[in-house]
Amino acid sequence: MNGWRFWLPRTLVAAVIISTVVIATFSLGQLLALPSWALWLTTVLVATLTCALSLNALIAPITQGLSGLETGLLNLGDNDYANSLTETGPAPIKALLISYNRTAEKLREQRYHLHQRELLLDKVVQNSPMLVLLCDQRQRVVFANHRCELMLGQPTLAGKKLDHALAEVSTEMAQMLTQTQDGLFQLTELGQSYHKISGEFQIHGQAHRLILAREITREMARQEAAAWKKVIRVISHELNNALAPISSMSHSGRKLIGSDADPRLARVFDNIEARCKDLNGFIQGYASFAKLPSPRIGNHNLAELITPLAEHFPLTWELTTSWGQFDRGQLERVLINLMKNATEAGANQLHLKVESQGDALIWQLQDNGSGMSDTVMQQALLPFYSTKKEGTGLGLALCKEIIEAHHGQMRLQHREQGGMRVSWSLPYHPQPQA
């Protein structure tokens, strides 16, 4: 019905025009006294031309609408959704044009939202602490986030062959990123643990491999420390429950025997009380690890912290900044424990370097002692592990616990010149000098 509203008036107008032209042509021919055959031929020719022109005028809106629709569809094929078509012409053509414009508008909105989601996803992935690496079937890097590029020591990885990108990294790191096996990987040189998962899928019909690796060093350390603390608390509780009555009975027994008793009994009670006192001190030492208080962070002058230590240890130091943020008492305890271990290992030269790197304060303590074997170094930070005859195995573990409570990381390394290098990082904010 809507089509007739468009066609009927236009058809009537065309019929009137054609009839008028034919009649006018026939009348003009008679006035000119043309022969019959010429009159009829002229009339037919004029009528045919008029019909053609009228038909072209009638179908022009259709051809224009279809042409515009064709152009719009070609634009959609090229992912160009910006153009809209003029909604004119016969009702069916106009309906098509309206549908096209609505579709294009919807596609524009969807592309905008998709673009926003892509920007958000890229922001999340690029700033994720997880290593994200995507390679194609030719082992060429398609995508790597900032964390991955930082770990591999290259500012841009996209487009490079994976084996070339891994040429400068450690063997352990290269194995983690090239092996198809998922699971836990230890990076001994960095003192870090990673959990890696990977998977293969199709992108544009081509096989790709996605590698995700997350550092779990701190998480494992926290769980390990929590487990040790629980064990220490249980042992301390049971030992205290046993020591209390032993000490009490020894004290009571000393009173009962009197002053004129056999001297050997007095020596027995002395030994019992001495052993109870030593064991109580032993328990208190472990309790200090299990009940380490949260650090009270403040701004402290580094020279004021280090200078008193140099009076008791063969220490030299180098500072590139004057201030740091930490718990002074706890960090002093870390430095004393580390310097004491170094001197007990034969070191007579200690050098401490403190420098700021961005938002981190890097500490490095070097010594020229006997160092550690690789086996000892792998176990040195574990609670209760000690190579000393009278060691408790809590010195380095307590240092590590304090550093991690400050949201830092601690590493042990061999020095090429001999001895050890202990380094750790702490959060840092520049503090102007007073």
UniProtKB/TrEMBL annotation:
Q: Which reaction does it catalyse?
A: ATP + protein L-histidine = ADP + protein N-phospho-L-histidine
Q: Provide the protein name.
A: histidine kinase
Keyword terms, alphabetized: Membrane, Transmembrane, Transmembrane helix
Q: Spell out where the chain crosses the membrane.
A: 12-31, 37-59
Q: What is its EC number?
A: 2.7.13.3
PROSITE patterns given in the database record: HIS_KIN (PS50109)
Name the enzyme group at the top EC level. Answer: transferase
Domain Histidine kinase as annotated: residue spans: 234-430
What InterPro entries does this protein map onto?
A: HATPase_C_sf, HATPase_dom, His_kinase_dom, HisK_dim/P_sf, PAS, Sig_transdc_His_kin-like_C
Reply yes or no: does the keyword Membrane apply.
Answer: yes
One term of GO molecular function:
phosphorelay sensor kinase activity
What organism is this sequence from?
Ferrimonas aestuarii
